Amino acid sequence: MNNVYRKILEKCLFYDGVLVLKYHIEYPCIYNTGNFAFRFNKYNKNLALEIQKRAETELYNEAVELYKYNKEHNYPIMVYEVYRNFVVTYSGLNYLSLYTDEYTFTGGAHGNTLRTSQTWNLMYCKMMKLYNFFPNNPYFLIDILKQINDQISKEPDIYFDNTCNLVLDTFNPESFYLTQNGIVIYFQQYDVAPYSSGIREFNIKL
Predict the structure, then answer these.
(1) Which domain holds residue 43?
(2) Do 101 and 30 belong to one domain?
(3) Which pTM was predicted?
(4) Are 102 and 112 in contact (CB under 8 A)?
(5) Is the dihedral of CA 107, 199, 52, 29 positive or negative?
(6) 44-73, pLDDT tens digit by residue?
(7) Is residue 57 located within the same domain as residue 136?
(8) What confidence tens digit (pLDDT) does each residue in 184-203 have?
């Protein structure tokens, strides 16, 4: 079992004395020695630093321009936000799996959340691909898509029309994580369902 800790980068950014952007970026860290811990920590720290850099440059510049525009037109001042957290979904002797949700608000009715995930093989110190979990099934993608569509058919009202085609168009083999019960495949907001339906998840039997 691996003890995964939470590290945080956070800051409030101002322009003309007014808060225009704030960020809270969490990333996982393992406090032990060894090749896996080194690779895992370096990978996730670099991801967090990339998001921080984008927040303090690109998004900050956008926030300043929005602030100037809203102030000039007497519109309410909106604060850009970046909030990222992670959830460990599986931690065992051979694998460590987690996902991160990165919420970004840049004005408008609501923000958007982007989910990413990573599943590590602890023995080989590398991230796994979806096909690694189906070594004896060359048709595993067909089986996965069938399970997804079967689950959608049980709650069709919460999905867009023509969902079968949308599943094919938006399926991403990188969008998975492990749990005690198997594999979860997920789709981003708006991929197969309205915003109100959130990020859709599908449990896949191995």
Answers:
(1) 1-128
(2) yes
(3) 0.93
(4) no
(5) positive
(6) 999 999 999 999 999 999 999 999 999 999
(7) no
(8) 999 999 999 999 899 999 99
